[in-house]
Amino acid sequence: MTKEVQAQRKEAVGPLHKVSRWLHNVRVTSLQHPLLVLGLVLLTIGLSMGDLIEVLPLFAPVVATPYFPYFHGIHDLLAIGLGSYVAFRGFSAVALGLLLLYLAVHVPYIYLQLPSHAPETLRIFMVGIAGIAGAQIIGALRRIEAALRASEARYRSLVETTTVGIFETRSDGTILYANEAVAAILEMDSAQQMLHTKVQGFYKAQSRREELLRILRSDGKVSAFEVTVLTSRGNERQVLLSATLSDDSMRGMMVDVTESKQIEDRLREVESNFRRSFDDSPLGIRIVRPDGATLYANRALLDDFGCDSLEELNRVPIQERYTPESYAEREVRYQMRQRGEYISPHYEIGGVRKGGEIRRLEAIRKEGLWNGERQFQVLYSDITERKRVEEALRESEQRYRAVVDSANDGISI
Question: pLDDT tens across 253-284, in order?
Answer without folding.
Answer: 999 998 888 888 887 887 777 778 888 888 99
